[in-house]
Amino acid sequence: MPAAEPEAPTVRSSEAIQPSLALLPDIDTQFSHFTDEPVPGWLTDLDLLRDEGVLYGLSESRPEEKILAIRHYFQRLSAPLDRQVEQHNELIGELNLFIGEREQRISEGAARQAELAARQPPGEHQLPRTIAGLLLSGVMCTGTYYLLEETLRPAFQESRMISIGVFLAGMFSLFGRVSVFHDADTRLTFRRMLEEVALPFAASLFVFVQALGTQPPLRAAALFIFLFFLFLLGGKLLLGTLTVLRNDLRFLTASRALQREKLTRSVEWETEKARLNTEIDGLRVQKWQVLPQLTRLEAELHALHARRDMLINIFESEYSLARSLKNRLTEGQRRLIRGD
């Protein structure tokens, strides 16, 4: 009795992978979610895919052809998802760019506000002191006039204009904005000294000569010295105080303008910052709305790639198993498996 032909070994994969495969959706259902393209017959069923692996393993064919076909097919399936993922990433990138631009504007605005807050007026005014000095200088000049007019009255009692002329010539002979005696930075020259001293000395000497006719010499000399220094310093002090008053008023105006600017810019900045923060919040809401969609698309793409890798692994596993058993099978068993 002829020996019974040995039973062909089972070339199926291990059943250990079946539970995990059962958890995956049906191939046709999953593929139809991405494309309407018909699924190749040998990919519609895992058993057919295993059979393809076995047939390729028992033949002399290389597995790269089928593996490349699987990869190309899944590449066509994943193309729409890849485009959607790319579009969502571009949208998130644009939203991040818009958010960054507005945050940069907030940072620049805050820096400008800090710079404005640190800005100081061009100078500090001493307006009360200047006004008080101006009033006192005016009173001093007025008293000096009456002293001069009283001294010249005996000689020029019919013409008070002479007293006024002598008073003005001696008291207000200031050619510059500020007297050299009040400005430490001014370079003293002979010409400038002559301009400052000549008229006060001449006016004082004129009064001294006139006083000698009506007053004792010592009294006339004291009057000469007193008037000379009053003319030299008093009138110039009054005119110099007017210049200082102008500077103080300019500093006061600049200080108030700076305070108004700080207040106005502060209100404008707070409004602008609130608007930018509102826009940032809106952009972040849009980003948060896109992120779940991107996550879902990436998950679907990952699942599709996992399905591709699983099918390739099944095919390669069946192919490797068939190749390892090829030499242990008889030609009849091989024909039986191939269905010849």
What can you tell me about this protein's structure?
The protein is built from 9 helices and no strands. The chain is mainly α and 340 residues long. The longest helix is centred in the last third of the chain and has 109 residues, at 217-325. The protein starts with 17 loop residues before the first helix and ends with a helix. Mean pLDDT is 76; it is low at 1-35.
> Mind describing the biggest β-sheet?
none
The class by helix and strand makeup works out as mainly alpha
Output the helix-strand order. Answer: HHHHHHHHH
| DSSP helical segment count | 9
Radius of gyration: 54 Å
Give the low-confidence spans: 1-35
How many beta-strand elements? 0
Q: What's the helical proportion of residues?
A: over 70%
N/C terminus separation: 27 Å
Name the beta content range: under 5%
> What's the pLDDT, averaged over the residues?
76
Shape verdict:
rod-shaped
Helices and strands, with pairings:
Elements: H1 18-22, H2 27-32, H3 46-58, H4 64-118, H5 127-152, H6 160-171, H7 190-212, H8 217-325, H9 331-338
Helix pairs in contact: 3-8, 4-8, 5-6, 5-8, 6-7, 7-8
Task: Describe the structure using short key phrases.
340 residues; mainly alpha; 0% strand
Q: Nutshell version of this structure?
A:
By secondary structure, the protein is mainly α. The protein is built from 9 helices and no strands.
